[in-house]
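We examine the record.

___
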Amino acid sequence: MPELPEVEVVRRGLHEHLVGREIAAVEVFNPRAVRRHVLAPLDQLLPGAQITDTARRGKYAWLVLDDRDALLLHLGMSGQMLIVPAGADGAVHERMRVRFADDSADLSFVDQRTFGHVLLDPGGAVLPSQIAHIARDPLDPQFDQDAVVARIRRRRTGLKRALLDQSVVSGIGNIYADEALWRAQLHGARPTEKLTRAQVGRVLDAAREVMTSALAQGGTSFDALYVNVNGASGYFDRSLNAYGQRDRPCARCGTPIVREQFMNRSSFSCPTCQRRPRNGRF
């Protein structure tokens, strides 16, 4: 699933190509793409609206319409927001097409697995109501790290579970949690209530650093499902130190990286640099 850096790369591309343009028409080819939209059909509501800005909270991005409304975009597992030539044939899994009054380039929503979705939130330009419960992320200028550190330490859970809880801190998914924990030399099963302020601060700093690095490289692409608005892949997968590195030597100490089961997925760590606690909560 695209995480914060990948969604931010897409948002920046949409901002560059769409801000200032007026929507002329909308075509929805698969109703699942708008399954959470409960108002009148988008092809009736969106024509005539001008895209005045873009924004993001965690793994969600949105287009600001007329400085008032929000067109919320969630990529799901395989969603792609692509800028394509006006009138060009759609991809096999194209779910929605937005055309513009200037007739230059279209916005195509492609989603192979159809877990992503688009919806209009009237009055949601600042923060769509559907994601108001999602916490700020470490790259947000208004991220209050001291408050997040305190919130994590008050919980009785495993550290990695806390990092993935979007109501505590958003944008950190499985990949970047493993990378941040590796950088901070902490195991994800460490009980949060036993961590010091310095330890929690260290892992949040590491998450910020690793996601900033990934953003500079266009995000992480393991297959063709994540691409930016021009269809290009990200290259941060070549810089991963923990995630997906099972049996490869740790870049810090040389011990082979191990894989563990975690919440129906995988977690990767160094058994020497990140010792697993005896009574940890994974």
